[in-house]
Design goal:
Helices cover 34% and strands 25% of the residues. It is of the alpha+beta class. The strands form 3 sheets. The protein has a 7-stranded mixed β-sheet, sandwiched between helices. A 4-stranded mixed β-sheet has the order 3-6-4-5, with helices on one face. The chain is globular, with a radius of gyration of 21 Å. Bound molecules: adenosine-5'-diphosphate and magnesium ion (MG). Adenosine-5'-diphosphate binds next to helix 2, strand 4 and strand 5. The site of adenosine-5'-diphosphate (ADP) has 12 residues, from helix 2, strand 4 and strand 5.
C-alpha cells in the first residue's frame, strides 16, 4: 500500500496547490477560478444569478464509517446543484469550504475532491475557489453553488395556485431505506470486526443514500416541454415537509393521494424487510433530492405520459388545509416530521 501523507506534513498552501491541479474550468461565465483572492464571474446578459449553500458536518449529516469520501464529495456538490435546479436555474460555479481534522491524510482529501470533480463534470459546474482549515471536531464541508436563470424565470416556492397539479420526479423513500441498511450493517460490523457488510442486495437504496443525483435533467426536460412550473422545491427533508413548505409559501392547501406516491420496487422490498411503511419513508424520510413542483392544469397533457414525473395530487384552497388522502378516500391532515439536525 502506498504511503499516506498526514495533512500536517503538507500544509495549507501545498494542499491547495495539489487540489487545484486537477481542476479545469469550462463555464463561459467563469472569468477567473482558483488562485486569487476571489473568483471572477460574468453572468450572461439577461440572466439572474442564484446562490445557495449547504453545510455538511461529520456525525450530523454523514458517517465516515460507511460513507466513502468519493461519494461524500459527489453528494456535497449534488445537494447544492439540487437547490439550484429547484430554482429552475442552471448551476455554473461552486466554492468549497473545508475543515479537516489533522488525522486526515492528503490522500483522503484528494478522494473527497475526486468525488467533487466527478460531480462538477456531471453537472457542468466549475470549482472556482474555497477555503481550507483544520478542525478539532470532525470533517466539515461547506459548498456554495451559483447558478443562472433568465431574468424572471426563477421558480419560487410561492407561485402555486389552488388549481395547480402537484408533481414529483423519480421515486421517494429509497434514500432513507438505504440509510437503515447502512446503519444496520454498521452495528453488525461494530459487534464483529470480521463481518463483511452485505450490501449487494441493497444496491439501489444504498446508492440513493450515498450518491444521490440532482435532477437537472428534469429542469431541462421541462424547458423542452415548454413548461415553467408555478412553484418548486427539492425533496431533501421528506415529501410531507416539502409540500407543507410549498403550500405555506403559496398560500394554498393541497390534496396528496398516497396511492400515487412513486415508490421503487427495491425500496418496497427493503421496507418490508425492515417492517417500515414505504409511504411513511417517502413522507418523512428525506434525502431523495427529487423535485416537487406544481404546474398549471393546462400543462397536464404535456407531462402525463412522462416516465419520470408523477402526478401525486393537486393544490387547493388554503381553507381546505393540506391533506393526505388514503386509498379509500379518507383524508388526514399532513404532518411533517422532516429531518431535524437538533
Ligand atoms: P485567502 O488567504 O485569500 O483565503 P487562500 O490561500 O485560502 O486565500 O486560497 C488561495 C486560493 O485557493 C483562493 O483562490 C481560494 O479560493 C482557493 N482555495 C482555498 N481553499 C480551497 C479549497 N478547499 N477548494 C478550492 N479552492 C480553494
Ligand atoms: Mg483562505
Amino acid at each position: 500500500m502506498a504511503e499516506l501523507t498526514p495533512l500536517a506534513a503538507l500544509g495549507e498552501f501545498a494542499l491547495i496547490n495539489r487540489l487545484k491541479k486537477n481542476i479545469a474550468t469550462t463555464q463561459a461565465s467563469t472569468v477567473l477560478g482558483i488562485g486569487d483572492d476571489a473568483a471572477i464571474i460574468a453572468p450572461a446578459a439577461g440572466q439572474e444569478v442564484v446562490v445557495t449553500t449547504d453545510l455538511l458536518v461529520e456525525g450530523i449529516h454523514f458517517d465516515l464509517s460507511f460513507c466513502p469520501l468519493r461519494h461524500l464529495g459527489y453528494k456535497a456538490v449534488a445537494v447544492n446543484v439540487s437547490d439550484v435546479a429547484a430554482m429552475n436555474a442552471t448551476p455554473t460555479q461552486i466554492v468549497v469550504g473545508l475543515a479537516a481534522p489533522s488525522r486526515f491524510t492528503v490522500e483522503a482529501v484528494e478522494e473527497l475532491y475526486a468525488g467533487m470533480r466527478l460531480a462538477c463534470e456531471a453537472y457542468g459546474v466549475d470549482l472556482v475557489g474555497g477555503d481550507t482549515t483544520s478542525s478539532r471536531a470532525g470533517l466539515l464541508i461547506s459548498v456554495t453553488a451559483l447558478g443562472q436563470v433568465a431574468a424572471g424565470q426563477a421558480v419560487r416556492r410561492s407561485g402555486g395556485q389552488p388549481t395547480d397539479i402537484l408533481c414529483v420526479s423519480g421515486d421517494l423513500g429509497a434514500a432513507y431505506l438505504g440509510l437503515q441498511v447502512l446503519e444496520r450493517e454498521k452495528q453488525v460490523f461494530l459487534a464483529d470486526n470480521d463481518a463483511q457488510p452485505e450490501l449487494a442486495d441493497y444496491e439501489y437504496v444504498v446508492q440513493r443514500q450515498l450518491r444521490p443525483e440532482a435532477r437537472l435533467d428534469i429542469i431541462h426536460e421541462l424547458r423542452e416541454l415548454g413548461i415553467v412550473p408555478t412553484s418548486m422545491i427539492d425533496v431533501s427533508d421528506g415529501l410531507a415537509s416539502e409540500i407543507l413548505h410549498l403550500c405555506a409559501a403559496s398560500g394554498t392547501g393541497a390534496r396528496l393521494f398516497s396511492e400515487f406516491i412513486p415508490l421503487a420496487n427495491p425500496a418496497l422490498e427493503v421496507a418490508a424487510e425492515f417492517n417500515l411503511d414505504p409511504i411513511m419513508c417517502a413522507l418523512n424520510g428525506g434525502e431523495d433530492y427529487e423535485l416537487l413542483f406544481t404546474i398549471s392544469v393546462n400543462d397536464h397533457a404535456k407531462i402525463k405520459n412522462h416516465p419520470d414525473i408523477t402526478v401525486i395530487g393537486h393544490l387547493s384552497d388554503l381553507s381546505d388545509g393540506v391533506n393526505l388522502i388514503a386509498k379509500g378516500g379518507n383524508a388526514v391532515p399532513l404532518q411533517a416530521q422532516g429531518w431535524t439536525a437538533f
